[in-house]
Amino acid sequence: MYNILIVDFSPYRETIARIFREAGYTVVACESAFDAMARLKSSDFDLIVSEVELPGDNAFDLYNYITTYYPFIPAIMITEKDIDTFFEHIFREGIGNVLRKPLREKELVGLAGKLITRKNIFGLNNYMDTPAEGIQKVRITASDQIRPAITALMQQLEKWGVQVNNKSVLNLILNELIINSVYHSHGYTKEKEERLPVKLKKGEFVDLYFSQNDQGYGISITDYKGNLTKQKILDSIRRAVEESQMILRAYETGEEISDKVSETGRGIDLVRKLTSEYYFVIRNKVRTEIILLFDREPPAGYETHSSLKIIEDPN
Known about the structure:
- It is a single chain.
- With 315 residues, the chain is of the alpha/beta class.
- The chain has two domains: 3-117, Response regulator (Rossmann fold, 3-Layer(aba) Sandwich); 124-313, 2-Layer Sandwich (Heat Shock Protein 90), CATH 3.30.565.
- Helix content is 38%, strand content 21%.
- It has ten helices and eleven strands.
- An eleven-stranded mixed beta sheet has the order 2-1-3-4-5-11-9-10-8-7-6, with helices on both faces.
- It is globular, with a radius of gyration of 20 Å.
- The two termini are 23 Å apart.
């Protein structure tokens, strides 16, 4: 079975260890970056799960060490803090996966399995307890089909009896993400900036998938170009975080910032904050899938909060 190294100085590491042991993994736990480095030199690991704040060397030092000497080992960072407070570190180190405590067991184990094996990383059915035949699809081949596709999705959610807490925000998220897939992924950035309609070339399209089960509903947006990268995602979030902080400062100081606030770029940032789970899944130059999962009723003690999950397939 696969071996996991857990690095956390708090008693919560025993909770993480239990989760993985019950899922069938072999677990080694330690309390510092120094101990983790020593363990890495003496044993083979398939995944590292590390608390952001560690005694002595911090987890960013550990992450840098891993990417330098063990670039083939995936890592998940965990924290009790709002990740926006240290997103500049995340951006600078190129960290793709950060989860907020308390951890959702299914989310943690599912992400770990996908990072280790790189199997079943595409497809909404691999993230929801629903059969593939229970998933509906709308195919988009032109920009004028985006709005009707979102309308069809919202109508289907209503037919399923799904209660969408904020329809306008979900519309905003879907509109921006699908526009990015139709325009940017297919080389129509100039047309997007000039607000021009486009029709994709023959054989090119974007697929919008959606499904539901007893726990909630899921949506995925898939393009078959694979031009989205981890760095582009991190840069988009970093700019959104900086704008949010600027808006808060302006609220306190009265500074005029209207000319500094972008009209776009909020979609990916809102995804982190409003979904129960989400995944950016990338196979370079082949396929990109953005998966959004929403709870019908969030589990007690597990509020929706910012996180970061990017799965890259190197093949």
